Amino acid sequence: MAATDRTLRILALLLFLAAGATILTALGFEHIGGYQPCALCLRERLPYYVALPITLVTVLAVWRGAPRGLLAALFGALGVIWAVSFGLGVHHAGVEYHWWKGPDTCVQTGGPGDAASMFNSLQGGVSGPSCDEALWHLFGLSFAGWNAVASLFLVVLTIYALYRTLAARR
Question: What is the domain extent for residue 137?
């Protein structure tokens, strides 16, 4: 096995494990820690749900010795997905820091005695917490900020894997 193949195997596996750990952490904070996600938090999870199966296919393709063109396409697609994830995290963090306004769907409705809230819950549209209030911080970053950091790490890792894939073609 060539050193490049070994490196790609490690990179693909690291991408899968890092992405899986990130989304499992978010789900753990929700289901074990009791942190209710807002509308933007839920939107930030979508790239992970799309990318994890693609990442698993990429891991299997690298381990099976798939053609470099296919690997480049898979890593390229993942790079785009993680860039979108990074953008979503930065956008949400900016909403939390009040750098810009969030979507109207992120406004928390009034308390339980509010007629609009009761009507909304009857319609099945129970709203989560407001998107512009961070529920948790670590080292000055909220969940959204940490998602941006994790997504940026995944972008860089994916670009490096794509570079290694393309460099091996020569």
Answer: 3-167
Here the tokens at position 21 are: 């750990």
Return the CATH number at 38: 1.20.1550.10
| Residue from 155, 31, 48, 37 nearest 92 by CA | 37
What are phi and psi for residue 37, nearest 5 degrees? -75, 145
CB 8 within 8 A of CB 165: yes
Q: Rounded to two decimals, what is the model's pTM?
A: 0.75
**Which residues does the chain have with pLDDT short of 70?**
1-4, 102, 107-128, 131-132, 134-138, 141, 169-170
Q: b/e for 62-80, b at 16 or more Cβ within 10 A?
A: beeeeebeebbbbbbbbbe
Distance CA 107, CA 99 (A): 16
Number of domains in the chain: 1
